[in-house]
Amino acid sequence: MRRSFVASSPIEDEKIRRSRECIQEGVRAGAKAAAVACVVSAVPTLTAVRVLPWAKANLNYTAQALIISAASIAAYFITADKTILECARRNAQYKPEN
């Protein structure tokens, strides 16, 4: 962590604390969305490979893993980004009680 030589004010410390909370909230929401997306994409992918002749012939293990992981990764980043931006909007309207 970088340290500055300028003394920070309590207001700046509060802003930093709130921004870290936003990041943590975004990570948690993203992880939940990724877990849901993993299940939601894995079930039809694995079912299709067992049932559909085209999928059985053309989707090897790597292709299946790529389909499932792409959905999970996309869900994680989209949800984390939306959550962090929403939290930042709330913090922009935050008024300290002094």
TrEMBL record:
The chain crosses the membrane at residues 33-55, 61-80. InterPro entries: Enod93. Keywords: Membrane, Transmembrane, Transmembrane helix. The keyword Acetylation does not apply. Pfam families: ENOD93. The keyword Transmembrane applies. This is Early nodulin-93-like. It comes from Kalanchoe fedtschenkoi (Lavender scallops).
